[in-house]
Amino acid sequence: MEGRCLEGGAWKAVLGRGCLRKGVLGRGCLEGGAWKGVLARSQGPNIGLLHLVQQGCFAEVVGGEAAETIFDELFTSRNPEKVLDGFAWTEGPAFIHEPENDESSRLIFTDTIEDRIYEYTPIEKELQLYMEGGGGCPDMERVWRAEPGANGIAMKRTSTVPTVIFCQHGARQISMLDLATRQIRPLASRFNGTRFNSPNDLVLDEDEKFVYFTDPIYGLLEKARFYDGAYVDLKSELGFSGLFRARVTDGDAHVELLDQSLKRPNGIAFTPDFSALVVSECCQGEEIPGCVQGDARWHVYRKDASGNFVTRSKTIDIDDVGPGLGCADGMKFHPSGWLIASCPQGICIIDIDKGTLLARLDMASRVSNIAVEPFSAEKPHLYMTGEGHLWRLPLRKPKRDAIGHVARGHTEL
Questions:
Q1: 141-173 residues labelled b (16+ CB within 10 A) or e (exposed)
Q2: Which of 84, 137, 165, 188 has its CA 20 to 30 Å from the CA of residue 63?
Q3: pLDDT at 104
């Protein structure tokens, strides 16, 4: 910790370059205050730093009354509930359900450091270890790989049996997983004969003919140098981090490179009407020019005349997110059309049409990715992974006219 601050007679814990409001000092909680938590040591790229583990108390909505109004339109509470903890680094949350049966939904997520895939059932509140070694990391590389596990996951909606396509950090490929048989079938591992870096996150298009995915270098991080630095770029066989797409059925022979100019492509999501594709850049550390800690950036791609997402229509740089742990990582769209994205210190709500930050929830913690529970659930939630935890926020069910509006919107970006 860099120091201590005093505000209104209550100590504030200092995190990085900023002070938390009414936080904790040492390991004590300020009862009756806005924040309640404990100090713990970080796992992952910022290992060794102290951070506040938020304990389900009030998390601040940043941006004034307008931001609070927007946030309250989407959520019924501002209190992130910590559902589970005790993991190393949680990632890749996705809701899975039996075909044509949203009520059977369960959440699967990964631990990229421990190389495990978990299954959580919200109704029963039951957690099960679904698979160990899902990242496909070769045994000889486990001695140095910091994150050998699986990462982003997407459900294949048109499958007759529950099936997902997921990113395997360890194997450096995207693969298909039959959830019933637990059989894994590789889909793509190379571009023009050269191995990917470590596919990070992915999304299927509307017809599920193509999978779009990001391929940064985070799966090549070393245990001994567990931070984002220039050294890891030298480990890339491609020589760049890319945005790709591949045919779901054909694999390596039909991998296409869409953009190789991004420094740290990470999260990826389609707008609700599939008219635009959004890709985030996860900027951490201080060694990558143009992509340093605190930068928050999302790129918006639109279709060309052939219907392919190859034209970047705009880049959204949010300058007022402020410094802090975390980055622009995983994200999902709300039916309203607003983007809910992980960003430094918590989650951001973004209007991609206007390219503006609408609201930010400061959770004093790193959020890695997001999953939206089906709104057919009795009490749907937004689930968030990151640090060693699984959080959730209760969602307000959207009105039917709002959903219909989204289906017609976002055609001009």
A1: eeeebbbbbbbbbbbbeeeeebbbbbbbbbbbb
A2: 84
A3: 65
**Which residues 6+ apart lie within 8 Å of 373 measured at CB?**
95, 105, 107, 122, 380, 381, 382, 383, 395
Which amino acid is residue 32, in one-letter code?
G
Q: Is the pLDDT of residue 115 over 70?
A: yes
Q: What is the DSSP letter of 283?
A: -
Characterize 36-71 residue by residue with b for buried, 16 or more Cβ atoms within 10 angstroms of its Cβ, and e for exposed.
bbebeebbbbbeeeebbbbeebbbbbbbeeebeebb
Cα–Cα dist 193/195, whole Å: 7
DSSP 128-178: EEEEESTT---GGGTTTBS--SEEEEEE-TT-SS-EEEEEETTTTEEEEEE
As a whole number of angstroms, the longest Cα–Cα distance in the chain is 64
- Report pLDDT digits (tens) over 143-160: 999 999 999 999 998 777
pLDDT given at position 285: 78
* The residue type at 34: A
Secondary structure of residue 285 in the 3-state scheme: coil
Tokens describing residue 365: 């913690």
Band (pLDDT 50/70/90 cuts) for residue 24 is very low
